[in-house]
Amino acid sequence: MKIVYMINYDINENKGVIHKIKQNAVQWTLKGHVVYFVSLKTMAIYDSEYQILFQEKFLDIKYGRLGTAINLLYSYYHLSNLIDKIEFDLIYMRYQLYMPFITKILKRNTVVMEINGDDTVEYKLSSKLTHFYNKLTRRFILKHANAFVSVSYELKEKFSYLKKPIIVIANGIDTKLYVPQAVSNKQPILVFISTPNQPWQGVDKILSMANYFKDYIFYIIGLDGISKDNIKYFGYMSNEESSNIINKCDVGIGTLSLYKQGLKEASPLKTRQYLACGIPIIYAYKDTDVPPDAPFALELENKENNMDYDKIKNFVDYVFENKNMRSEARRFAEEKLDYKKKEQKRLDFFQKVLNGKTE
Protein backbone atom coordinates (compact mmCIF):
# COMPACT_ATOMS: atom_id res chain seq x y z
CA MET A 1 0.00 0.00 0.00
CA LYS A 2 0.91 3.63 -0.45
CA ILE A 3 -0.25 5.50 2.65
CA VAL A 4 -0.50 9.25 3.24
CA TYR A 5 -0.27 10.24 6.90
CA MET A 6 -1.89 13.69 7.04
CA ILE A 7 -0.76 15.78 10.02
CA ASN A 8 -1.13 19.30 11.39
CA TYR A 9 2.50 19.47 12.50
CA ASP A 10 5.97 19.85 11.11
CA ILE A 11 7.21 16.25 11.02
CA ASN A 12 10.49 17.41 12.55
CA GLU A 13 8.87 18.99 15.62
CA ASN A 14 9.89 17.55 18.98
CA LYS A 15 6.47 16.52 20.28
CA GLY A 16 5.10 13.35 21.79
CA VAL A 17 2.45 13.04 19.11
CA ILE A 18 5.12 13.25 16.40
CA HIS A 19 7.05 10.46 18.10
CA LYS A 20 3.94 8.26 17.95
CA ILE A 21 3.26 9.16 14.30
CA LYS A 22 6.81 8.29 13.33
CA GLN A 23 6.68 4.98 15.19
CA ASN A 24 3.51 4.04 13.31
CA ALA A 25 5.12 4.86 9.99
CA VAL A 26 8.39 3.09 10.76
CA GLN A 27 6.53 -0.18 11.21
CA TRP A 28 4.52 0.35 8.02
CA THR A 29 7.73 0.95 6.07
CA LEU A 30 9.44 -2.09 7.59
CA LYS A 31 6.51 -4.18 6.40
CA GLY A 32 7.07 -3.04 2.82
CA HIS A 33 4.57 -0.19 2.47
CA VAL A 34 5.27 3.29 1.11
CA VAL A 35 4.57 6.13 3.54
CA TYR A 36 4.23 9.85 2.83
CA PHE A 37 3.69 12.55 5.43
CA VAL A 38 1.59 15.50 4.31
CA SER A 39 1.99 18.43 6.69
CA LEU A 40 -0.67 21.13 6.77
CA LYS A 41 1.64 23.28 8.85
CA THR A 42 4.53 23.39 6.38
CA MET A 43 2.50 22.51 3.26
CA ALA A 44 5.07 19.86 2.42
CA ILE A 45 5.11 16.20 1.45
CA TYR A 46 7.81 14.20 3.22
CA ASP A 47 9.10 10.73 2.44
CA SER A 48 9.69 8.04 5.06
CA GLU A 49 13.10 9.56 5.79
CA TYR A 50 11.42 12.92 6.58
CA GLN A 51 12.89 14.59 3.52
CA ILE A 52 10.75 17.10 1.61
CA LEU A 53 9.59 15.84 -1.78
CA PHE A 54 7.25 18.69 -2.68
CA GLN A 55 6.27 21.91 -0.97
CA GLU A 56 3.75 24.70 -1.55
CA LYS A 57 3.83 28.18 -0.07
CA PHE A 58 2.53 28.21 3.50
CA LEU A 59 1.44 30.79 6.05
CA ASP A 60 2.94 31.12 9.52
CA ILE A 61 0.77 33.72 11.19
CA LYS A 62 1.50 33.82 14.92
CA TYR A 63 -1.62 35.22 16.56
CA GLY A 64 -2.90 32.58 18.96
CA ARG A 65 -5.85 30.40 17.96
CA LEU A 66 -6.93 32.87 15.29
CA GLY A 67 -3.55 32.67 13.60
CA THR A 68 -3.65 28.88 13.73
CA ALA A 69 -7.13 28.86 12.17
CA ILE A 70 -6.07 31.20 9.35
CA ASN A 71 -2.97 29.07 8.65
CA LEU A 72 -5.05 25.88 8.48
CA LEU A 73 -7.73 27.48 6.32
CA TYR A 74 -5.08 28.57 3.83
CA SER A 75 -3.46 25.11 3.89
CA TYR A 76 -6.71 23.26 3.27
CA TYR A 77 -7.53 25.54 0.36
CA HIS A 78 -4.24 24.66 -1.34
CA LEU A 79 -4.07 21.05 -0.17
CA SER A 80 -5.43 19.60 -3.41
CA ASN A 81 -2.57 21.10 -5.43
CA LEU A 82 -0.07 19.56 -3.04
CA ILE A 83 -1.54 16.10 -2.58
CA ASP A 84 -2.13 15.64 -6.32
CA LYS A 85 1.64 15.47 -6.77
CA ILE A 86 1.75 11.89 -5.44
CA GLU A 87 -0.12 8.65 -6.00
CA PHE A 88 -1.44 6.82 -2.95
CA ASP A 89 -4.10 4.36 -1.84
CA LEU A 90 -5.27 5.68 1.50
CA ILE A 91 -5.14 8.71 3.82
CA TYR A 92 -4.67 8.18 7.54
CA MET A 93 -5.35 11.13 9.82
CA ARG A 94 -6.34 12.03 13.36
CA TYR A 95 -9.68 13.63 14.09
CA GLN A 96 -9.36 17.41 13.88
CA LEU A 97 -11.52 20.49 13.75
CA TYR A 98 -13.51 20.87 10.55
CA MET A 99 -12.12 23.40 8.11
CA PRO A 100 -13.72 24.50 4.82
CA PHE A 101 -12.20 22.76 1.77
CA ILE A 102 -11.22 19.59 3.70
CA THR A 103 -14.29 17.74 2.43
CA LYS A 104 -12.98 18.07 -1.13
CA ILE A 105 -10.02 15.86 -0.13
CA LEU A 106 -12.06 13.46 1.99
CA LYS A 107 -14.66 12.82 -0.71
CA ARG A 108 -12.06 11.97 -3.36
CA ASN A 109 -10.01 9.51 -1.30
CA THR A 110 -10.25 6.54 1.02
CA VAL A 111 -9.80 7.94 4.52
CA VAL A 112 -9.23 6.15 7.82
CA MET A 113 -9.52 8.47 10.81
CA GLU A 114 -7.96 7.90 14.22
CA ILE A 115 -10.08 8.70 17.28
CA ASN A 116 -7.82 9.23 20.28
CA GLY A 117 -10.09 11.32 22.49
CA ASP A 118 -13.61 12.61 22.98
CA ASP A 119 -13.48 15.86 21.02
CA THR A 120 -16.81 17.02 22.46
CA VAL A 121 -15.28 17.01 25.96
CA GLU A 122 -11.72 18.07 25.18
CA TYR A 123 -12.66 21.20 23.23
CA LYS A 124 -15.16 22.14 25.92
CA LEU A 125 -12.37 22.06 28.49
CA SER A 126 -10.04 24.20 26.39
CA SER A 127 -12.37 26.81 24.85
CA LYS A 128 -16.13 27.42 24.83
CA LEU A 129 -15.92 29.03 21.39
CA THR A 130 -13.96 26.13 19.91
CA HIS A 131 -16.34 23.67 21.54
CA PHE A 132 -19.36 25.44 20.00
CA TYR A 133 -17.74 25.51 16.55
CA ASN A 134 -16.77 21.83 16.78
CA LYS A 135 -20.26 20.85 17.91
CA LEU A 136 -21.79 22.57 14.88
CA THR A 137 -19.35 21.26 12.27
CA ARG A 138 -17.95 17.90 13.42
CA ARG A 139 -20.50 15.95 11.38
CA PHE A 140 -19.10 17.40 8.16
CA ILE A 141 -15.71 15.77 8.73
CA LEU A 142 -16.92 12.55 10.35
CA LYS A 143 -19.38 11.60 7.62
CA HIS A 144 -16.69 11.60 4.94
CA ALA A 145 -14.32 9.18 6.69
CA ASN A 146 -14.55 5.63 5.36
CA ALA A 147 -13.52 3.97 8.61
CA PHE A 148 -12.15 4.71 12.08
CA VAL A 149 -9.42 3.45 14.39
CA SER A 150 -10.31 4.03 18.04
CA VAL A 151 -7.75 3.89 20.85
CA SER A 152 -10.36 2.48 23.26
CA TYR A 153 -13.60 0.51 23.38
CA GLU A 154 -15.24 3.39 25.23
CA LEU A 155 -14.53 5.79 22.38
CA LYS A 156 -15.63 3.18 19.87
CA GLU A 157 -19.06 3.16 21.49
CA LYS A 158 -19.26 6.97 21.32
CA PHE A 159 -18.73 6.85 17.54
CA SER A 160 -20.72 3.69 16.77
CA TYR A 161 -23.76 5.78 15.75
CA LEU A 162 -21.91 6.59 12.50
CA LYS A 163 -22.50 3.01 11.37
CA LYS A 164 -19.03 2.78 9.85
CA PRO A 165 -16.22 0.25 10.38
CA ILE A 166 -14.35 0.89 13.64
CA ILE A 167 -11.45 -1.12 15.04
CA VAL A 168 -9.89 -0.69 18.48
CA ILE A 169 -6.10 -0.40 18.63
CA ALA A 170 -4.78 1.03 21.87
CA ASN A 171 -1.50 2.90 22.09
CA GLY A 172 1.62 0.77 21.80
CA ILE A 173 5.37 1.13 22.17
CA ASP A 174 8.58 0.00 20.52
CA THR A 175 9.87 -2.28 23.28
CA LYS A 176 13.29 -2.75 21.70
CA LEU A 177 14.08 0.89 22.50
CA TYR A 178 13.93 0.13 26.22
CA VAL A 179 16.37 -1.99 28.18
CA PRO A 180 15.19 -2.89 31.71
CA GLN A 181 17.75 -2.61 34.47
CA ALA A 182 18.04 -4.17 37.89
CA VAL A 183 17.62 -1.76 40.81
CA SER A 184 18.50 -1.98 44.50
CA ASN A 185 16.90 1.08 46.04
CA LYS A 186 16.86 1.40 49.82
CA GLN A 187 13.35 2.84 49.70
CA PRO A 188 10.64 2.75 47.00
CA ILE A 189 10.95 5.32 44.22
CA LEU A 190 7.74 6.13 42.30
CA VAL A 191 7.91 8.02 39.00
CA PHE A 192 5.30 10.06 37.15
CA ILE A 193 5.57 11.51 33.63
CA SER A 194 3.41 14.60 33.26
CA THR A 195 2.49 17.28 30.77
CA PRO A 196 1.76 20.86 31.89
CA ASN A 197 -1.82 22.15 32.07
CA GLN A 198 -3.58 18.79 31.96
CA PRO A 199 -5.54 18.55 35.24
CA TRP A 200 -6.87 15.07 34.44
CA GLN A 201 -3.37 13.64 34.91
CA GLY A 202 -3.76 14.11 38.65
CA VAL A 203 -0.51 15.80 39.68
CA ASP A 204 -2.29 17.08 42.80
CA LYS A 205 -2.82 13.46 43.84
CA ILE A 206 0.85 12.67 43.34
CA LEU A 207 1.64 15.46 45.78
CA SER A 208 -0.92 14.06 48.24
CA MET A 209 0.69 10.64 47.97
CA ALA A 210 4.10 12.15 48.61
CA ASN A 211 2.75 13.92 51.68
CA TYR A 212 1.24 10.69 53.01
CA PHE A 213 4.07 8.29 52.16
CA LYS A 214 7.03 10.04 53.71
CA ASP A 215 9.20 6.94 53.22
CA TYR A 216 8.65 6.90 49.45
CA ILE A 217 10.51 9.08 46.97
CA PHE A 218 8.57 10.63 44.08
CA TYR A 219 10.14 11.65 40.75
CA ILE A 220 8.06 13.95 38.53
CA ILE A 221 9.19 14.19 34.89
CA GLY A 222 7.86 16.82 32.51
CA LEU A 223 7.05 19.53 35.03
CA ASP A 224 9.22 22.22 36.56
CA GLY A 225 9.02 22.69 40.30
CA ILE A 226 10.99 23.14 43.48
CA SER A 227 12.31 19.80 44.68
CA LYS A 228 11.94 19.27 48.40
CA ASP A 229 11.62 16.53 50.99
CA ASN A 230 10.70 13.36 49.06
CA ILE A 231 9.71 15.03 45.75
CA LYS A 232 12.12 15.69 42.88
CA TYR A 233 11.16 17.53 39.69
CA PHE A 234 13.06 16.83 36.47
CA GLY A 235 11.31 19.17 34.02
CA TYR A 236 11.04 18.32 30.34
CA MET A 237 13.13 15.34 29.24
CA SER A 238 13.61 13.48 25.98
CA ASN A 239 12.33 9.93 25.66
CA GLU A 240 15.82 8.56 26.22
CA GLU A 241 16.45 10.80 29.23
CA SER A 242 13.15 9.89 30.85
CA SER A 243 13.83 6.18 30.33
CA ASN A 244 17.13 6.52 32.17
CA ILE A 245 15.23 7.94 35.15
CA ILE A 246 12.42 5.36 34.96
CA ASN A 247 14.91 2.50 35.00
CA LYS A 248 16.05 3.65 38.43
CA CYS A 249 12.53 3.50 39.87
CA ASP A 250 10.32 0.83 41.39
CA VAL A 251 6.79 1.90 40.39
CA GLY A 252 5.38 4.02 37.55
CA ILE A 253 2.27 6.13 38.12
CA GLY A 254 -0.27 6.64 35.36
CA THR A 255 -3.14 9.11 35.00
CA LEU A 256 -5.12 9.50 38.22
CA SER A 257 -7.97 11.90 37.34
CA LEU A 258 -9.25 10.77 33.93
CA TYR A 259 -12.83 11.38 35.09
CA LYS A 260 -12.14 15.10 34.57
CA GLN A 261 -12.11 14.34 30.84
CA GLY A 262 -15.36 12.45 31.07
CA LEU A 263 -13.61 9.18 30.19
CA LYS A 264 -13.26 5.81 31.89
CA GLU A 265 -10.78 4.07 29.60
CA ALA A 266 -7.33 4.97 28.24
CA SER A 267 -3.93 3.66 27.13
CA PRO A 268 -1.44 6.44 27.97
CA LEU A 269 2.03 6.26 26.47
CA LYS A 270 3.57 6.82 29.90
CA THR A 271 2.33 3.49 31.24
CA ARG A 272 3.55 1.72 28.10
CA GLN A 273 6.97 3.22 28.71
CA TYR A 274 6.95 2.10 32.35
CA LEU A 275 6.02 -1.46 31.40
CA ALA A 276 8.59 -1.59 28.59
CA CYS A 277 11.19 -0.67 31.22
CA GLY A 278 9.89 -3.50 33.41
CA ILE A 279 8.28 -1.20 35.97
CA PRO A 280 4.99 -2.15 37.71
CA ILE A 281 2.28 0.50 37.44
CA ILE A 282 -0.46 2.29 39.41
CA TYR A 283 -3.28 4.04 37.52
CA ALA A 284 -6.94 5.07 37.92
CA TYR A 285 -8.95 4.08 34.84
CA LYS A 286 -9.69 1.01 32.73
CA ASP A 287 -6.65 0.27 30.59
CA THR A 288 -7.59 -1.00 27.12
CA ASP A 289 -4.81 -3.61 27.14
CA VAL A 290 -3.96 -4.31 30.79
CA PRO A 291 -6.29 -6.78 32.57
CA PRO A 292 -7.49 -5.53 35.99
CA ASP A 293 -6.04 -8.60 37.72
CA ALA A 294 -2.52 -8.20 36.30
CA PRO A 295 -0.13 -8.77 39.23
CA PHE A 296 2.20 -5.97 38.08
CA ALA A 297 -0.59 -3.37 37.99
CA LEU A 298 -2.83 -1.64 40.53
CA GLU A 299 -6.03 -0.13 39.14
CA LEU A 300 -7.55 2.50 41.43
CA GLU A 301 -11.07 3.87 41.05
CA ASN A 302 -11.63 6.58 38.46
CA LYS A 303 -13.13 9.21 40.76
CA GLU A 304 -12.21 12.21 42.88
CA ASN A 305 -11.57 10.37 46.14
CA ASN A 306 -9.56 7.44 44.80
CA MET A 307 -6.40 7.64 46.90
CA ASP A 308 -6.73 4.31 48.70
CA TYR A 309 -3.48 4.52 50.62
CA ASP A 310 -3.80 1.02 52.06
CA LYS A 311 -4.08 -0.51 48.59
CA ILE A 312 -1.23 1.61 47.32
CA LYS A 313 1.02 0.63 50.23
CA ASN A 314 0.23 -3.07 49.87
CA PHE A 315 0.99 -2.95 46.15
CA VAL A 316 4.22 -0.99 46.51
CA ASP A 317 5.39 -3.32 49.29
CA TYR A 318 4.58 -6.32 47.06
CA VAL A 319 6.44 -5.16 43.95
CA PHE A 320 9.35 -3.44 45.72
CA GLU A 321 12.52 -5.53 45.16
CA ASN A 322 10.35 -8.12 43.36
CA LYS A 323 12.36 -9.15 40.29
CA ASN A 324 9.60 -11.46 39.07
CA MET A 325 7.13 -8.57 38.84
CA ARG A 326 9.58 -6.52 36.82
CA SER A 327 10.08 -9.46 34.47
CA GLU A 328 6.33 -9.96 34.09
CA ALA A 329 5.79 -6.28 33.33
CA ARG A 330 8.43 -6.38 30.60
CA ARG A 331 7.11 -9.65 29.15
CA PHE A 332 3.60 -8.23 28.95
CA ALA A 333 4.90 -5.17 27.10
CA GLU A 334 6.67 -7.37 24.55
CA GLU A 335 3.71 -9.67 24.00
CA LYS A 336 0.78 -7.22 24.08
CA LEU A 337 2.00 -3.65 23.64
CA ASP A 338 4.73 -3.78 21.03
CA TYR A 339 4.28 -1.69 17.89
CA LYS A 340 5.02 -4.62 15.57
CA LYS A 341 1.85 -6.45 16.51
CA LYS A 342 -0.33 -3.36 16.83
CA GLU A 343 0.73 -1.89 13.51
CA GLN A 344 0.20 -5.18 11.68
CA LYS A 345 -3.36 -5.12 13.00
CA ARG A 346 -3.75 -1.54 11.73
CA LEU A 347 -2.35 -2.41 8.30
CA ASP A 348 -4.65 -5.41 8.00
CA PHE A 349 -7.57 -3.09 8.72
CA PHE A 350 -6.39 -0.62 6.07
CA GLN A 351 -6.35 -3.40 3.50
CA LYS A 352 -9.84 -4.53 4.46
CA VAL A 353 -11.12 -0.95 4.11
CA LEU A 354 -9.57 -0.71 0.63
CA ASN A 355 -11.06 -4.07 -0.32
CA GLY A 356 -14.46 -3.20 1.15
CA LYS A 357 -14.33 -6.23 3.44
CA THR A 358 -14.62 -4.74 6.93
CA GLU A 359 -17.72 -6.62 8.04
What does this structure look like?
There is one protein chain. This protein has 359 residues and is an alpha/beta fold. The protein has two domains: 188 residues, Glycogen Phosphorylase B (Rossmann fold, 3-Layer(aba) Sandwich); 163 residues, Rossmann fold (3-Layer(aba) Sandwich). Helix content is 39%, strand content 18%. The strands form three sheets. An eight-stranded mixed sheet has the order 4-3-2-1-5-6-7-8. The chain has a six-stranded parallel sheet with strand order 11-10-9-12-14-16, sandwiched between helices. Strands 13-15 form a two-stranded parallel ribbon. A hairpin with a 5-residue loop joins β3 and β4. It is globular, with a radius of gyration of 21 Å.
Instruction: Tell me the span between the first and last alpha carbons.
Output: 21 Å
Overall spatial form: globular
Order of helices and strands: EHEEEHEHEHHEHEEHEEHEEHEEEHHH
Question: How many strand elements?
Answer: 16
Outline:
It contains twelve helices and 16 strands. The model has no long low-confidence stretch (mean pLDDT 92). 39% of the residues lie in helices and 18% in strands.
Features:
359 residues, alpha/beta, Rossmann fold, 8-stranded mixed beta sheet, 16 strands
In terms of topology, how is this protein built?
Layout: E1 2-7, H1 16-30, E2 34-39, E3 44-46, E4 52-55, H2 64-83, E5 90-94, H3 102-108, E6 111-115, H4 119-126, H5 128-142, E7 147-150, H6 153-158, E8 166-168, E9 189-193, H7 203-212, E10 217-221, E11 231-235, H8 239-246, E12 251-253, E13 265-266, H9 269-276, E14 281-283, E15 286-287, E16 297-299, H10 309-319, H11 323-337, H12 339-355
Parallel strand pairs: 1-2, 1-5, 5-6, 6-7, 7-8, 9-10, 9-12, 10-11, 12-14, 13-15, 14-16
Antiparallel strand pairs: 2-3, 3-4
